[in-house]
Design a protein that fits this description.
The structure is a single chain. The radius of gyration is 22 Å and the shape is elongated. The protein is of the alpha+beta class. The protein has a five-stranded antiparallel beta sheet. The protein has a four-stranded antiparallel beta sheet with strand order 2-1-5-8, with no helix packed on it. About 30% of the residues lie in helices and about 30% in strands. Strand 10 and strand 11 form a beta hairpin.
Length: about 190
């Protein structure tokens, strides 16, 4: 049906490694795969296998769950997009009292990756979350530019005046800072 690869971490893994919850839901217990270092797994490639007949209006949705937290949507594959490299944004671990999707025989709390067959149309509304993240990222970069420009501006009546090369100077500084400090760009992440 489908397979996954964790870049730089695994060989291809097929569906047999997942626990099947019901006809349309599978779970990979990350404790069996990487132990407590699940949050170091930041990407996953999921792909449909050639012999899997996913209806055109359906998608394989991927979710992640930290111990005790709810599942969080990461992305999906469809017949039109049969493979994808997904960023795994692990939620903060929650309390043991929160509900978990587990196989009947699993009693321990652990991080999980869930895969389910869902209506593709329903998943498109979940992309709103990704769009909001992009919008917030753009706002943070714009705020950084505004603050930089503000430190160089002068006032001419009711107008702010900045040097003509201000954008070039800001962009060079932005690039240099990103090269020097890998955490700089992460500070813009949401």
């Amino acid at each position: 049906m489908f397979g996954v690869v964790f870049p730089n971490r695994s060989f291809p893994i097929d569906i047999s490694t997942f626990t099947q919850i019901d006809t349309f839901h599978w779970v990979l217990d990350m404790n069996h795969f990487v132990g407590e270092a699940y949050d170091q797994i930041s990407e996953m490639c999921i792909f449909l296998l050639n012999n899997f007949n996913l209806p055109p209006d359906k998608a394989l949705a991927v979710y992640v769950q930290s111990p005790g937290s709810a599942f969080v949507f990461c992305g999906a594959v469809t017949l039109a997009r049969p493979s994808a490299v997904l960023s795994l944004q692990w939620p903060e671990p929650g309390s043991a009292a929160q509900m978990q999707l587990t196989a009947g025989d699993s009693s321990s709390l652990s991080a999980k990756i869930g895969v389910s067959v869902e209506d593709a149309a329903a998943l498109s509304s979940m992309d709103v979350v990704a769009e909001r993240k992009i919008e917030k990222l753009a706002m943070k970069v714009g705020e950084n530019l505004f603050n930089f420009m503000q430190s160089f501006c002068g006032v001419d009546g009711s107008k702010l005046v900045v040097p003509m090369d201000i954008l070039d100077r800001w962009f060079k500084k932005f690039q240099e800072k990103a090269k020097r400090d890998p955490g700089f760009l992460k500070s813009f992440a949401l």
